[in-house]
Amino acid sequence: MKNQHTVGMSAAPRAGTRLSVRNLMRHLGLLCGLAAIAASSIAADPAPLYQQHCAVCHGPGRLGVTGPALLPESLARLRKPEAIKTITEGRAATQMLGFADRLNKDEIAALADYIYTAVSPAPTLSEADIKASRIVNFAPGSLSAKPAEVFQGVDMMNLFIVVETGDHHVTILDGDKLEPIHRFPSRYALHGGPKFTPDGRYVFFASRDGWITKFDIWNLKVVAEIRAGINTRNVAVSGDGKYLAVANYLPHTLVLLDADLNLLKVHPVLDKDRKESSRVSAVYDAAPRQSFVAALKDVPEVWEISYNPKADDIPVGMIHDFKYKEGSFIPGFLNPRRTFLTEPLDDFFFTQNYSELMGSSREAGKGQVVHLDVRKKIADLKLPGMPHLGSGITWNYKPPQGAQDRMVMATPNLKEGLITVIDMKDWSTIKTIPTLGPGFFMRSHENTPYAWTDSMMSKGKDTLQVIDKRTLEKVAEVKTNPGKTLAHVEFTRDGKYVLASLWERKADGGALIVFDAATFKEVKRIPMDKPVGKYNLYNKIMRSEGTSH
After folding, report:
1. Residue 369 and residue 153: Cα distance in Å, rounded?
2. What are the start-end ranges of the E strands in 325-389?
3. Alpha helices of 125-278 — where are they, by DSSP H?
4. What pTM, to 2 d.p., does this model score?
5. What confidence score (pLDDT) does residue 328 get?
6. Mean pLDDT for the chain?
């Protein structure tokens, strides 16, 4: 009976007992509240959340892998509310998906706070670090100066380099037989496309975490490697094959190497007053000018760095007399010559003679044309959405009704379903061609009347669209595997075949799909493990108007 009374089943409790129960309930409520707060605190602990949801793309140490570095240094120009919005909703035109369906508001806010917190010790990469990282597997001149026996009868300029990110390998493909010749492991997350020496013997790769790899195609050997950055955008190779330029997001540097991957110079990327630093959006080779050209993401300048040892000196500061060099000058060789703009450029596209570049602007709907000789903006561009100028192509367009031929440039769009076609004489927009959705890549070839583009950033990701360069009309849609991404087209050397990536893991059907460039019919499938890109030596080295450079 005593036990029954304790739980208050029948007898009325005394006043003191009722007070005790009330206090007990109050304490229990307080404990439950504290437990809930503690549980919420544990759930919002950012470090394990980051490792679970973010590390695979942004790196365990937040230094970047396939995604960019997430550090205060690299996020200085991204306001925290925008970071919260990006974590919640994702980011258009990237592989960043939103986490609103997996994380609550407190967890997202905790993650945002976390990525704005400094990493200790702070990541650095000094010149000594770069030099110490260099790995030489084969000394210069130690390998055969002719292609290996496996290449007997192969057109060495119709080879393809195929980057497979599924298991981080590279495949060398015979462009005539359309068969793999060799496959080797690569650094993790290659980024920015491989670049070739003019003889087609060497190819250079850049990984997102800053490793530059030199591969001897003729001997099928990794020759040397060096780490030139912590978070790297891309690498460029000079037209004579002697120099390399590496564009970095972290640290804010432009690194110059020789072809044997010896460090030549590290340029801290600072504005002319040396007060504001910048990430480097991209660096490309301008072979006819014997220079590298770099776009700066955070500073309104374009840098041109000559690799001509006889380049004219560069005036800096106050100059009294240019002819007699009275004033402040620096050597023109391997030093930046600045073009000052009103706003930064994220990416750009060269005209055929490399005297101008067409750059995308951060302001929606606008771009600008910069003349590299007079070093100033000469025209505005009407570019809706977010054009992907780095994937632009050119061709000679013959308008109807007997109008004069003109060279045009066409660019896909990362944010809207359209292709913009621009007259490269007066910089006007000739036409916008609707597509199934935002896309990343556009390709063509001198020997075909058609250009191919994807819509991989949209529901139309499984369909390539074919545009007639003569009429500027879409004439076909090519779909092979409904629901699976089909993207990144490249042509064989003669333009007869089109190779597209079925952008999936090998186990899920990932492959290169070969199409007849005239009939658009599938010819062959070559199994690959998420083949994100393929690059034809001839088209790249000869700077085909149908491919990016």
Report:
1. 45
2. 326-330, 336-340, 348-350, 356-360, 365-371, 376-383
3. 127-133
4. 0.83
5. 80
6. 88
